[in-house]
Amino acid sequence: MSNVSFAGLLRGALLCALAVVAWWPAASQAASRSPAETELLQVINDISRGDLDAASTRVAALLKAHPQYRLAQLVQADLLMAQARPLAGFGNGDAPRNERLMQLRDELLLRVRAARETPGPGKVPAFFVSLPPDLKHALMVDTERSRLYVFRNNNGTPELVADFYTTIGKAGADKLFEGDRRTPLGVYFVTGTRPKKSLTDFYGAGAFPLNYPNEWDKLMGRAGSGIWIHGVPSDTYARPPKDSDGCVVVSNPDLESISKFLQFGQTPVVIGRNLQWVPLADWQRDRAPLVARFKGWASDWEKGGEGVIRHYSRLALVDGKRYADWLTRFSAKDNEEARGVDEASVTLIRDPAMPHLFVVSFEQAGRGKQAGTKSRMRQYWLREGDDWRIIWQGQA
After folding, report:
1. Per-domain boundaries in the chain
2. Residue 311 near residue 297, CB atoms below 8 Å
3. Residue 298 and residue 54: Cα distance in Å, rounded?
4. What is the mean pLDDT of residues 117-142?
């Protein structure tokens, strides 16, 4: 068989597998991705151009560096198989079309789609409304794209710097209870680290727990625990798109890259479906009223007294107290115990699963009898009619 016909057969097989994705990604990419994924995408590009020698050389080098990379193994097998017989589709050996083969096909689809759909300059995620100066990065997971995005805090504006393929829950997203094998949707924070030496090989290079269930999850009756960002076993390079018990799973090299972006207790992780990116001007316009609403509360909070009550929902839970019980704390002496809000510490994020909810995290400094004390606070604001009001407030 000639190299030309060989190339045509394999190219046709891959195009069949990737029929739902516009072919090769645009030349300009705003974010960096792992070297292994970059090489795999280049192999696919070589095949699409009919340069099978380059593809074979490249995939062999990739597998030498990452011998457990099963998707690369399958591409290499197709390269070899196409020399002997026609291929009707990706992964078209003599083996039956089993579940594992379909998972690898889905993985390839998602990786190529991510390369094609990486937003260009001038677009930002709609959810990061306000980022404080001391927060260096923020994370976002798109469960439909199986993608984890990392943003640099560029003077308050989220700027995409890296993105990684990720695995989510076997049953998809929107976790409700323990053992449902779903990945939660919402706004979470990285609470700490579990080093590799403290875990079994199942978690690979380590793990970073998230605060699921968060306060809103608990209000909604959602349950479960142990939602982490973690790695993969040592005999695996990547897991299928839907293969975890609810955690966000990435390759071990990618986890090590992500670890450099984290600040424990501060780094937010937004998890949602088909997350929205908007032009910078639209983001600036839409964030202004939310920032102003929080600043209005902060001003009244610092003054003390009953003026602050107007910011709270009658259904609110504040410092563990129901609204009616919490009202009893307001008296003339509150002015002596007013608390200051460090505006430079404010993180404000819209919930991706509930457009009428936003989360605020900030540092609070005590005054009066509480002078010299500091605490990290969190609020959940819910839209009620035409206004936003606090539905939950307490220490983070």
Report:
1. 3-117, 123-278, 283-395
2. yes
3. 61
4. 93
What's CA 260's distance to the chain center, in Å? 15
The answer to whether the 123-278 and 283-395 domains have the same CATH topology is no
Distance CA 95, CA 231 (A): 29
Amino acid at 40: L
Give the number of other Cβ atoms within 10 Å of residue 120's Cβ. 11
Instruction: Pick 283-395's CATH classification: 3.10.450.50, 3.40.50.2300, 3.30.565.10, 1.20.120.520.
Output: 3.10.450.50
Distance CA 252, CA 207 (A): 10
SS (H, E, C) 147-175: EEEEEEEECCEEEEEEEEECEEECCCECC
Q: What is the mean pLDDT of residues 253-264?
A: 97
The two counts, helices (H) then strands (E), for the chain are: 9, 20
Mean pLDDT of the chain: 87
Q: Are 25 and 115 in contact (CB under 8 A)?
A: yes
- The Cα-based distances of 160 to 118, 189, 197, 213, 286 in angstroms read 9, 19, 31, 27, 19
- Segment 100-121, tens digit of pLDDT: 888 998 999 999 988 888 888 8
Protein fold of 123-278 = L,D-transpeptidase catalytic domain-like (2.40.440)
Does pLDDT of 24 surpass 60? no
